[in-house]
Each structure stands twice: as C-alpha cells, then as structure tokens.
Amino acid sequence: IKSSQNALSEETDLLLSEWVYDLNEKLPVRVDKDTPIESIELLNQCRKKLMDSVAEEGMSANVTQFYLCHWGFTESVVWTKANKGWKIAREPKSKSVTKKDDSKEVEKESDSANMEIDDNVVEEKGEDLDQEEMSQEEKWPIEIVNMLQDTCKYYWQSCLGFECSFPKPSKSYTFPDMSRKESAGLVELLSSRQTLYTSYDFIMSEILMCLDKDAAYLRVKSLKAIRSISSQSPEILEEGRIRTSVVQRIHDTSPSVRDAAVEVIAKYLSQQQDVSYELYGLVSGRIMDTSVSVRKRLVKLLGELYFRFTDIEVKKDIASKLIMRIGDNEVTISQLSLKVTQKILFLPFKEIEKDGNDYFGSSYANATKDRKRCIDSLTGIITGAVAKLDSSVSTRNFALTQIVQKTIDGIDEEPRDWYEKIFQWINDSLFDRLMQLDQELDTTDFINCLATIHSFAKSCPNLLREIQITILQPYLSITEEDDYTIASYVLMIYRDVLPQMKHHGRSSIELLERILLQLLTRCPLDMVSASASCLCVIVSHISHRYNILIKILGSSVAKLRQTREAILHGNVTERTFSGVLKMILLCGLLCQHFEFDKRRQEEPHAMAALDLVYRGNIGILVYDLLKFYTGEDMEELAEQGMTLRTTALQGLGYFYSSYPTFMISEASTQLMDKIFREGTPSLKTKLMHVFQEFLGAEEGRIGKRDEEEKKGKDQRIGIDTLLGNTEEYAELGVNGSLMQRYLPKILECALSDLTELRYPAFDVVSTVIHCGLAHPVLCMPAIVAAETSPDISLRTKAYYMHKYAHDKYGSLLYIQMNEYINKSFQYQRLLFGSGVQGYGKRGGDAKIEAVLSLSYSILKEHKKSRFDFFYALIKPFLFELKLTNPEDIDITFLKYLAENMMMLDFATTNEVLFLVYHIDRLLMTLGADLLSFVQFLKKQGKMGEPEDMSEEDIDISMMEEDVITSSKLSIVLCMIMLLKKLLIELYDIPDQEIREYNPNNTRRPRDVMKDIEMSQTIEWEEEITYFQHNCLDRRTGIQACSKFEYLIMNDATAIVTTDFE
C-alpha cells in the first residue's frame, strides 16, 4: 500500500507522466453520497481506458474477466448502499395517493433498477428494509444512483459476453497515447482506489497494537513488520505515532524486542542522507545493553554511521563508544569493536597518503600545511574520544592502549610499518597540540592529549623521541591541583617508555631522578604510587644507582621504627606522625617494584649500603613494620589510629604483590579474619581493593610466566624445570588458596548495603569467576541475589557475570538452585525489611516484572535449567505435616516465591502446566493431610468461631503449637491455590490439558501469552486476612483454615490428578 502511495507521489523517483499525477488528485479515494458525480465518471473512464489498453495488447481473456468481475462487484456493493435509502422510502410512498407524479416516476425507476440488478447482484439477506427512521438527508443523489446502476450493469453484462454500451459521461477526459509504463501507472492509480488500499491506517494501527502486547514474540513480529515496510518506505518512521512506538521498544525488557527495535532504526538510519541526532542519541545509548545481539548490532551500526556524520563531536562520541567495547565480556563483540575502531580511526589516514606530498619525506615535521591539517583533524577525533572515556587516570586510556597493542600484534611486516608510520604522525601531532594547549592554558584538553600519548607510547615506545621526553620534564613541577593529574600521566609515560629506549643521556636521567626525589617529598599520598614506581623502574633498568632506593627505604624504615617505639612507650606527640603515612606507602611500594634481597644476592657490591638498613631479609623487615601499624595498638589512637591502619593495609597490599606467600601467612590471615569480623566498612573496603590489586598482580605474573615459557620452549630444559621451582609454584598457588579461604566473606561484602564496599567486593568476585579461582557454584548465590538489586549498575554487573558463567559451565551452574533463590530473598529482606515483594518495576520502561526475571532470562535458554528453576520455586512449599514445626514455615519467603511465579512471563503451555502439576501433587499430599487435620482440630474444639473470641483467646501466645502449624500451612496452601487459579486464567489453560499433562511424556507444547485485560497480581490482603496486618493470631489463623477448606474443596483438577510416577 505504501509503495503504491509513493509511486503516485510527485516526490517519487519513478517520474510518471503529469496526467497520472493530475488524475491522482481528481479521482475519488472512496465513493459516498458526497462524492461529485464528475469524479465517479472520471473513475469509470480510467477503467474503460485500461480495458481498451488490455484489448490493444491482445492479453489473455482472463485479464479482462478479472477486471470486469472486480469492478462489477465493487460497483454492485456501492450501488446497493446508494440505493438503500430509496428502497426504504418506497413502501410508504406506495400507500400515499397524494404524492406527485415525479416521485412515482422515481419510484418506478428505482423498482426497475432493482429488478434488473436482482439477476446480477446477490443482496445481503436479512436486511431490514422497513427502517422508517432513516432521514431524508441519508439518501444518495438519484443521479449517482442511476449512474452506478448503469455502470454496474455494463460491467456484469460485459463479463457475461453481452453487448452493452459504456455509460456516456457528462464530460469526457482526453487520455494521451500511453506507453506500457504509463499503462502501469494507470493500473497503480486504479489499484490505489481499492478498499484494501484505503485501509492503510487501520492495518498500521493493528501492527502498532501488537507492540503493546505482553508476549515478547508478538512485539518482535510487529517490529519486523515495521522493518519490512520501512525498508521500502523509510518515511513511515517520520510519522509521530510509529516513530514513538518503535523508540519505546528500544528500552523493552525483552532482549529480542530491543534487538528488533534497534534493527528497525538501524535500517532506517542507513537509508537517510541526513541522520537524526535525536535518533542517534537514543540508539547509541544502548551500546551498554545487557543483550549480546543488541550490542553487536550497535557496534556495526555505529561503524556505518561514523562516516555519515560531518559533526566532529558526534564522530568523537561514536569513537568513544566503540573504544569502550574493546573490553566487552563477549569475545565476538570485542573483536568486532577492534575491527570497526581500526576502520574509523586509522584507515582514514590512507586518504592522506594519496595527496602525493611526500617530496620532503613522510614525517609529520616535513609535511605540508594541508597534510598537517588533515593529520591534526583525525588526531583530534582520537583525543576527543579519549576525553569521553572514564576520567580516572588508571582506566581512561586502558581501552585505547589495548586497541593500539592488538592492532600491531601478530601482523605482517608491511602493514606493521604502515601502522607505525601512522602512529608516529599521531604522536607528533599530539605533541604539537600539547604545546599550543600549554600556551592557551587549556588544562582539560592538555590532560586528554597526555592520556592519548600514553596510550600509543605504551604499546609503541619507539614513537617518543628524546626531545619529546625532555619536553615533558617541566610538567613534573607541581604548583596547582591539576598539575598532579598531568604529572601522573608524565610519570606513567616515563615508566612505560624509558626502559624500552636503547640510549639515554646520563645527565638527563640524573636530572630526572632528582626531580622524582623532589616530587616524592612534596606530592600527596595519591601520587606516591606513580612517583615511586617510576623511580624504581629508572633505577632498576637504566641508571642502576641503587643507593637512591636504599636511602629512601632506610629513612622510611627508621621513621617507622621511631614511631613504633613512641606508640609502644606512650610518647606520642603531634610531630610523631608527621610523614608516617607516606613512609608506610613507600615501604610497600619499594618492595613491590624493586627486589632488594634478590639484587643483594646478584650484585652484593652495588647493594652493600643495604646492610646499613638491615642485614637480614628486607621482606620480613618491611612486613613486620607494616603489620604493626594494622594491629591492636592503633585502636588506642582513635581517628589517627584508624587512618594508620587503613594506610598500612594499603601498604601491605603493595607488599603482597611481590611477596605473595606472605599473604597466606598466619599473621596475615589473622589480620584479615579480624577485619572481616570486627573491621569498619572503610577497612573492609580497603581490604577488597587489596584483594583486587593482588589478584591482578598474580594474573599478570602468570601471564608473564606463560610468555616466557613460549619464548623458551625451543631452548634446552634446565634442571629447575624438570624438578620444578617449588618457590615459584608456591607463589602461583597463593591466589587460589586465598580466595577459597575468604570467598564467603567477600560474597557477603558484595551484597552489603554500602555502595563503597559493594562495588569493590563484586569486582573481586568477577575476577574469581573469570580466573577460575573457585568453583562458580560458590559464587552463584551472590550473583543471583545481585541480579535482584534495585541498583541498576550492580544488577548489570551481576548479569554479565552470570551470562559469562552460564556460557562457560552450562547446566552445571544450577546444581544448587534452591540456595540461589534463598540468597536472593535474604538480600531483598536486607534491603526492604518486612516489605519484601517478589515483583517490582525493574525494567527500562517501568514494566512490573518478577524480581528473579533477570536470572530467569539467562537460564531459560536451557530446557533442563528452566524446569529446575520452576521446581526450585515450588519445592519450599513441600512440608511434611507431622514433622513440621511453626518456626519452619516462613510465610514472607513463600509469598516472595509465589509472587515471582505469578509475574514470570511463560511462553508455552508446558511451563504453566509444570507448575500446576506440582501444585496439584502438593495439594494431593500435604493439602489432603492438612484438611483432615484441620477438621480434626475443629472436632476437638480448638478452632471456634472467630467472632466469639475474646482478646485473650486471640493472643498467639495462648495458641497451641498444632493450631499455629495448621494456620501457617493453611496460609501457605491458600497462596499456592490462588496462584494456581491465576495462572490457569491468565494463560487460558483448559482443565482437560491439566488432567492429561504428564511431565514424563514428551508432547509438543503450544505457545501461550498472558491475558493483559486481566489483573496480573493477587491482592493478598483481600484474599487472606492474615496479610492485612501481617500478624498471626487465633482469629486470622482460623480464618485462614476456613479459607483453605473452601478453596481445596472447590479445586477441580487436584482431586482427579493421577500420580504418574
């Protein structure tokens, strides 16, 4: 329909003749009593012209018959409607003798017309012709009625082969000589006047209605229908109602719906010359979507849109979003992101080479102004993209560094040379820009430039020239707060680049060492790590002036010893703790980045001064000092003591990175046990950071060892390799031992109600899962619980982790499903107390869904896991009446499970029938026993009428234990029976299917969807008196028992359920 409308539009590219467009304006879209008779005559002339064209081309008689039958039927329907008013008026006119002759003449003409048409047209049966209330205004003009009668007779008689003349119009239209293309235009013109073609709005409304259906598959089908239409007619998405409906589905709770919506918009944007910024913003925001298919589609789309935009800011935004996806948990998306990022950031430099301006070489310094301008423009996009990434120094340029490293790794020499040339252009352009920004005092862009330089220099250290290294030195002089960030980037560049350079000027290195010593003296605690690591790298790999580090260590140890004595003897003054925090960190950092004991063994002469500090093992010395500052003696120092403990714990974290075996020593484990047991949230948070840094260091150590093994696999095998280096292997096993010991405590922290503790703890759990340091089943309770969190950031982290483990371990992951569900309830109770609910608004479009729906969306992919999940929701309802105590029944937990089952979106009858089947089995066992027991208690008089009870009788403390048990179980079974009734009604499950269902038999299920007209939830307060106050007493207990008796006695399916097993 839309294609036909477009074909007849003057804006189309088909370029039909002007007379076609003219006729399109004049022909009636539909014929009614207000349509001018000239328009109807023109429509008939167009039909006659088409018949003549068909005859001239000598087409099959079937074509002619088709047109005549179709038009004859259409005209007969319209004529019947037009003639209706005249037929109604006929009967009263025949009874009147006072009517004028002209009215009688009209009546005769109408009767004659009816007689002639009766042979050719089948009139509708049962039509009431005596509706006298029809007003005179509803009659069609008699001229139109007569004309429709004549044309109708012409079409049908011509179809039957009779000779019949075409009704003569009042005004003839002169058609030009038509080509076949123009004849096709006439056919299109006449087709557009058919009833189906005028139903566009109605059909589109029906499609849009499906977008609001509860069943996800209907929403997907609707979006696919819109995609098919928009692929031929993109302009439909410019209609407000259609565009709004599709855009809303981008935030749908179903991944498949979101994917379909993104596909529709992606197809639309790819067909547009000018891309809508509004749509771009909506779509690009889904680059962090939890669905793999959505993220993958977005990566492809953004790569295509990049070259469609001319706005540099949008290009920077696209580049930043693609750079972030390099760290995606899904390998295919990470690889696709790398490929697309290389295409948009690096390949445009190929166009620069085509300008032929290489007369003075290809370097940036010798480039022409035009070439430099192009290089600067492309480099500016990269810098702008980096500016939009995480603002923290440690993570901002991590993603771009990965892209640069992966780009040059494993490629042939020729493309590698090209990339290195391009990277050199970028580096030189960045340094040029750096000088300009320094003059302009633009600190923000200056920092972004430095971050970009570090990303390229870390992967390609040879890009930096000695002069550029020298240019950066002045920025280590700090005078303002922003200077610390700048100095941090300069230090990281020096740390990563200087050891890779072949030649170093002695004087420049000595100068740099003096600058770093001054920086260590003045810098804040946040800068100590970067300064110390840079100095250690320079001393260890370049200058070998070990005395510098020995002096720093000696002064730090001396200060810490002095302070320790002061604390132990109670001689603490205001000056006692001056500089202590920095000394604590320096001790840990020096041990992390420089191996004092190993160097003393290898170069005893160069390390002779170390004996003045301590003749024994430096590791033990530093460990004992740092451990003291985390001990009980700090508790007497109040706030100062807490600061010392937190800083010392961070220092130990640095120390553990190079001395991993100390972390599982008895003293360390006692310290960590005490922190978990008695520590403040800040100490626990710091310990989580220590764990994360340690696991990262161990992962790096293992990776480095694997690389060394690959490089040395062709070398001769030494005795250490054959016998095994016990010390090395002992260190490599520390991370696993540590996590197995403290994983339960870490999982508790991951579900803390404190955000500052929850996030670092969950990062540790993520590392444990990805590195395989513990069985994933141990982590799953916390992961599933986190997926129910109202915190969308934590929920997303948990989802990604669950998806990763699900894809890797499959059904093995769900062997303790009941524990996962129970942990999710405990977490919800921690957050909401007694107000726990099994459903809520958790999706992007504020749709109410089950709390466990995110977990279910992953595990439902496997049939076994899906039905294990259903059974885990039912299993807690299984009680043995004789063995059950009142405290065994947690009504709030069971209500939480029932509400989750209530709000899950089931897709097939088997899923609903499975739950109903097990509910019926529960009613046949526990339900039957409880019914007998309740009736027994009534006979004993323990359950009187609630209205006749006094306040003393109502008190729960006066209730017998068996009455409490039966009351609680009655509440539980009432909930499960109400749930069963709701599910059967929501999904329209016939009783016959329930009776015939057997979970052990394989039968093809049918698709089902919720009845959205019905209430989706159960109002517990209205159904069960107990929930009005959440208080159990004798009155509410007896009412629950009575409700239970009523429900189970009226349950049809449970009574006839057969035990198939």
From TrEMBL:
InterPro entries to which the protein is assigned, alphabetical: ARM-like, ARM-type_fold, Nipped-B_C, Scc2/Nipped-B
Chain ranges of the Sister chromatid cohesion C-terminal domain: 737-921
Entry's family note: Belongs to the SCC2/Nipped-B family.
Gene designation: SCC2_2
A Pfam entry, by short name: Nipped-B_C
GO biological process entries: chromatin looping; establishment of mitotic sister chromatid cohesion; establishment of protein localization to chromatin; regulation of gene expression; replication-born double-strand break repair via sister chromatid exchange
Region feature (Disordered): 92-117
Keyword list, A-Z: Cell cycle, Nucleus, Repeat
The keyword Lipid biosynthesis is assigned to this record: no
Record's GO cellular component terms: Scc2-Scc4 cohesin loading complex
Ranges of Basic and acidic residues composition bias in the record: 92-111
Subcellular location: Nucleus
Single GO term (MF): cohesin loader activity
Protein name, per record: Sister chromatid cohesion protein
